[in-house]
């Protein structure tokens, strides 16, 4: 595979980076140590932990009282574990982050949070998350153990290994979805696992494609980008999207045979449109992270809401 030659940074790209960094700088100058430590845990990315709702929602159990505590516990456990990993990652990447046009504003790279304090808080969060997982359900501890182990390997080495870095990040999304089913004791269907797995790969490959298109392979902290071409990432992205749509459609059509109204079949429409809308944002090079797209695209939010209503109607047989 030929090595991707990154495009030169244009004036528009530089202006965009500065526009994104200036408000961060203003907030950074006003933050106390506790707020800086909270920001270093990246609470904005906690929205990804809502994936623990996926299995209970698909089974129609999300509104039942006996599932509320395990779901909330799984969500909070992943928030703690993910923040612990982010803190460790930022300590290890402090030198590279300081050379990055945007990441140098992160609290640890900017000197707002001492690295030793960040490491201590990281260790506390990870140990606490594993202990809480065992208290909820021993099997949830196994899922969290795999999550923490894979993320530690990613932080220490796999982030620089082509393909393995994609699989490592995608596994984080998949394990969140699995954790929701494990915490509540709900069985996971084969279609659910396929959608979760390849949907995760679709988002991760899309993020890498957006990075390499907008900034070039030498402008981020991931050396693995130097081994990717935009063409290869687009191939992975399209392959994952195709399998995700196929698996979801098969689930919807299978569920439809057990119901009177075609709610699940109708949900295929907003699901596919949402996937296409997400892909459009990625193709423009505007995607920094999946949560940025979801929180910043109103049309995608509307499609997601319509999809959720149709799925809920099918699950509860409205």
TrEMBL record:
Q: Give the top-rank taxon of the lineage listed in the UniProt record for this protein.
A: Bacteria
The cellular component terms of Gene Ontology attached to this UniProt record, alphabetical and capped at eight, are: membrane
Q: InterPro entries, from UniProt?
A: UbiA_prenyltransferase, UbiA_sf
Can the keyword Cell membrane be found in this entry's annotation?
no
Query: Where can this protein be found?
Result: Membrane
EC number, as in UniProt:
2.4.2.45
Do you know which Pfam families this protein is assigned to? UbiA
Supply the alphabetized keyword list: Glycosyltransferase, Membrane, Transferase, Transmembrane, Transmembrane helix
Q: Which Gene3D superfamilies match?
A: UbiA prenyltransferase
Membrane-topology annotation of the record: Multi-pass membrane protein
TM segments? 68-92, 113-133, 139-156, 232-251, 300-317
Query: If you read the UniProt record, what top EC class would you report for this enzyme, in one word?
Result: transferase
Cite the GO molecular-function annotations of the record: glycosyltransferase activity; transferase activity, transferring alkyl or aryl (other than methyl) groups
- Protein name, please? 5-Phosphoribosyl diphosphate (PRPP): decaprenyl-phosphate 5-phosphoribosyltransferase
The species this protein was found in: uncultured Nocardioidaceae bacterium
